[in-house]
Specification:
231 residues; six-stranded parallel sheet
Length: 231
C-alpha cells in the first residue's frame, strides 16, 4: 500500500513532461489519477502508464484557460471517483522570442491565460470541492525559477510564474482553516518538450549547468518527487 492509497489526484498538463511524471509518481504512491490536457495522444500514453501501475485513470480534454473546462473537469472527477484529495495545477506554456518591446496582446493573453488564470481557477475549483466535502486536501501549483529571474524574451512567462508564487500564498491563507495546504514548486531548468529548444543550444546548456550548484540539469522525476512529498 502506498501513502496515497484511496486518494484521488488531479493533474493538469499531464500529457507530457513534468505533469506526466507527477501523475505517474502519484499513481505509484497509490492514488487514482485524473489527467487533463489538450494533447489527446499524450494523455493516452500517460493513462496507459497509470494503468500499468494498477491505478484507475480518467483522461479529460481540458483547456485550463477556460473556467468552463475546469468546472467540467472537476465535475467529471466527481462523477468518476466521488472525491478529490490532491490537485496539481501544472499545465503551462512559454512564449518563444516574444520580446518585451514587441510582444502582442494575443501572446500576452495566451501565456497568462494558461499559466495564471488557468492555475487560479484550477486551485479555486479544487478548493471549493475539497471544502464542500470536508477533505483536508493538497493544492500544488508549478511555478519556476523564471518567477525569480527576468528574461527580455519571455516576459509573460516570468510574470505568470512569479504570480503563481503569490497565488499559492493567497490560497494558503484562504483554505488553511479547512486543513488544506497550498504550495508551489519552483523548478530550475528541467529536460522536457518545453525546454527542448533551450538545450539544443550548447552554450545555453553550459550557462545553465554552470549556474546549477550540483552541475546537473533536472529531470521530471525530480519535480514529481517534490509533488509527492507535498501530496
Ligand atoms: P511540457 O510542454 O512538456 O508540458 C506542458 C503540458 O501542458 C503539455 O502536455 C501541454 O499540452 C499542456 N498544456 C498546455 N496548454 C494547456 C492548456 N491550455 N490546458 C491544458 N493543458 C495544457 O512542459 P513541462 O516542462 O513539463 O511544463 C510543465 C510545467 O512545469 C509548466 O507549468 C512549466 O512552466 C513548469 N516548469 C517547467 C520547467 C522546465 O524547465 N521544463 C521549469 C520550471 C517550471
Amino acid at each position: 500500500m502506498g501513502e496515497l492509497t484511496g486518494r484521488v489526484a488531479v493533474v493538469t498538463g499531464a500529457a507530457s513532461g513534468n505533469g506526466r511524471a507527477i501523475a505517474l509518481r502519484l499513481a505509484r504512491d497509490g492514488a487514482d489519477v485524473a489527467i487533463a490536457d489538450l494533447d489527446d495522444a499524450g494523455m493516452a500514453e500517460t493513462a496507459q502508464a497509470i494503468g500499468r501501475e494498477g491505478r484507475a485513470c480518467l483522461a479529460q480534454r481540458c483547456d485550463v484557460s477556460s473556467k468552463a473546462d475546469v468546472d467540467a473537469l472537476f465535475d467529471a472527477v466527481a462523477a468518476r471517483f466521488g472525491r478529490v484529495d490532491v490537485a496539481v495545477a501544472n499545465a503551462g506554456v512559454v512564449e518563444r522570442g516574444s520580446h518585451c518591446l514587441t510582444m502582442t496582446e494575443q501572446e500576452w493573453d495566451r501565456t497568462t491565460g494558461v499559466n495564471l488564470k488557468g492555475v487560479f481557477f484550477t486551485l479555486q475549483v479544487a478548493a471549493q470541492r475539497m471544502i464542500a466535502a470536508r477533505t483536508p486536501g493538497r493544492l500544488i501549483a508549478i511555478s519556476s525559477i523564471m518567477g525569480e529571474w527576468g528574461n527580455a524574451t519571455s516576459p509573460a512567462y516570468c510574470a505568470s510564474k512569479g504570480g503563481v508564487k503569490q497565488l499559492v500564498k493567497s490560497f494558503a491563507t484562504a483554505v488553511g482553516h479547512a486543513g488544506i495546504t497550498c504550495n508551489a514548486i519552483g523548478p530550475g531548468f528541467i529536460r522536457t518538450a518545453m525546454t527542448g529548444p533551450v538545450f539544443e543550444n550548447a552554450a545555453m546548456e553550459r550557462f545553465l549547468v554552470d549556474r546549477t550548484p550540483n552541475g546537473n540539469i533536472g529531470d521530471p522525476d525530480d519535480v514529481a518527487a517534490v509533488a509527492a512529498f507535498l501530496a
